[in-house]
Amino acid sequence: MALLATLQDANVLPPEGTPEANRVIQIVIQFQGLFMKSSDPVVREFFDRALALKYADRAGELGTNFRQGGWSSEVVEAVCERYATSSDQEHARLAGAFLSVNMRPADFELLGELYVKARASFSQQGQDIHHIFAEHRRSMPGGKRFDRKERRDGDQGLYSHQS
Q1: What are 120-138's pLDDT values in tens digits?
Q2: Smallest Cα–Cα separation from 107: which of 53, 26, 37, 162?
Q3: pLDDT tens digits, residue range 52-71?
Q4: How far apart are alpha carbons 79 and 48 in whole angstroms?
Q5: HEC string of 36-85?
Q6: Is 128 left (phi over 0), alpha (psi -120 to 50) or beta?
Q7: Which of 28, 39, 106, 121 is most enclosed, with most CB atoms within 10 A?
Q8: Cβ-contact 146, 69 below 8 angstroms
C-alpha cells in the first residue's frame, strides 16, 4: 500500500517483521476498510466533515476517489487532523465504530502520529508527502488510474482519470 511505503520512506515505521510493524499494517488496512465501507452515521459524518473542513469544495471528489481506490495522503491527513482536534465526546462516539473492526482509539492516534512524523521528516528534506505518496500510488498495481495534476490556481490534488 502506498501509505505504508510512504511511511517506510520517512523511516517512521517499526522494523519490518516485528509485532509493532504488523500492528501498523493492520491499523492501516482496518481503518481504510472502516472509512470506505461503514454505513455507521457517526463514521460517515466524521469522515465527510474531516474532508469538508480540510478541502471544502474538493471534499466530495476526494471522498469518491477514496471509496473507489483507498487512502490518499489528503484523506489520511484530513481524518487524522480532524481526530486530533475532536472532542473527547466525539472520540467516545467513534470508539464503538473502531471496535467493530477490532481497533481502538489509540490505534487511530498511532496512525495520526506516524503520518505527522512522516510529513515532518519529508518537510525537513525539502520534500512534500503528497508528491511522495502519489508516486508510490502510481507505482502500485491499479495505481495508474490516479495521477497528480496541477490546477490553474496551483493547487495540487489527486484526480481520477476514470468516469
Answers
A1: 999 999 999 999 999 999 8
A2: 26
A3: 999 999 999 999 999 998 99
A4: 9
A5: HHCCCHHHHHHHHHHHHHHHHHHHHHHHHHHHHHCCCHHHHHHHHHHHHC
A6: beta
A7: 28
A8: yes
| Residues 6+ away with beta carbon under 8 Å from 5 | 136, 140
What does the H/E/C string look like for 105-144? HHHHHHHHHHHHHHHHHHHHCCCCHHHHHHHHHHHCCCHH
- Pairwise CA distance, residues 131 & 128, whole Å: 5
Rounded distance, CA 91 to CA 7, Å?
A: 25
Quickly count: other Cβ atoms within 10 Å of residue 78's Cβ: 23
pTM value? 0.84
Residue linked to cell 460517515: 44
Distance CA 159, CA 143 (A): 11
